[in-house]
Amino acid sequence: MSFLTHRRLANCHSIADLREAARKRIPRVMFDYIDGAADDEITLYRNNAGFGRYELVPHNLIDVRNIDLRTTVLGQAVEWPVLIAPTGTSRLFHHEGERAVVRAAAKFGTIYSLSSMASCNIEEVAATADVPKWYQIYVWKDRAVVKEFIQRCRDAGYKSLCLTVDTPTVGHRERDLRNGMTVPPSLTASSVVDAALHPVWLWHLLTKPRITLANVKGRPGRGVEKAATLAMTAREQMDAGVTWDDLAWMVEEWGGPFSIKGVLRPEDAVRAVDAGVRGIIVSNHGGRQLDHAPAAIDVLPEIVDAVRDRGEVILDGGIRRGTDVVKALALGARACMIGRPYLYGLAAGGQAGVERALELLRSEVHLAMMLLGCTSVKALNRGYLRTR
What we know:
Blueprint (H helix, E strand, L loop, with lengths): L2 H8 L4 H11 L2 H8 L6 H8 L4 E3 L14 E3 L2 E3 L3 E3 L12 H11 L4 E3 L7 H7 L4 E5 L5 H14 L3 E5 L9 H6 L9 H8 L2 H9 L22 H8 L6 H11 L3 E6 L2 H9 L4 E4 L13 H12 L4 E5 L5 H9 L4 E4 L1 H33 L12 E3 L1
Parallel strand pairs: 4-11, 5-6, 6-7, 7-8, 8-9, 9-10, 10-11
Antiparallel strand pairs: 1-12, 2-3
Helix pairs in contact: 1-16, 2-16, 5-16, 13-14, 15-16
């Protein structure tokens, strides 16, 4: 890590600071791809603002010299209850991409989730760091491809599969449409000046291997060689006819811990655990799919109450502070997932930037637990909360 990168990251004291550092380090089209959401971005706003509905009510005169952040998620021990969410094509933001993120996850003792739309493949990520890994999967029209992914994950030692269920098609992301966002990036007349203002990013784009959807590269009709944009690839290959029968088939085909991501209704959560799903990830895809969907934190208590002890509930969406994590855990989540926070770090400084994001959140969780008078994340409950 260069001196300038070290100093830049040291001056970041919050996820908001990392966001601003990322905005300065990469072209606008790439920053908007991380930062943006669907339509008017109402759901994106709600995800972040929803945590403000809850106040933290501390206990006093508690010995808080020793705070235990450890827990387990789907049978995997983690050092603290914040997991790395699957996000696509991370090499768009830093040339090391997913490799940088999985190394940071290993250093901070948490689970890393690889996206189907990643720019590094299943095997490459598996070999990069010794850390529990999940693979996020879609139901593709060609079920043979799904079976191939499952076998590759099994062979590479992935611990769990995570099926994203809120993407029968891709949401209407206006920032990307206005910017002409493509994968791999194309330098048009409108973007070449902006790229030139970010010479380090541009140098790596031009000198490193071409950015692709690594897990489907080279398969006829399934790679970016045919579909110029990520949205087009997704629309061509994702099956909009997926049903609960497909979920049951995938659970059986995998035969291990299985979670679904994108649940916002209690009855869907119950039906999922009835089908053998162990992890329910409460998520609206970071506001990138259906705008005006509820904030993840707002529906979390209902889903926790519906699932009870039949599965583990994970919150994904809106985490920007350690207090957000504590509130989600107090409402019954087993853990939280983060996407944008670590991507801001990745764009700002590669692996060191991801580590800075995790360091900030972990220290904030630890501090919040001390001030709350709670010595273990497993002891958090709704008694520590008050609704505004």
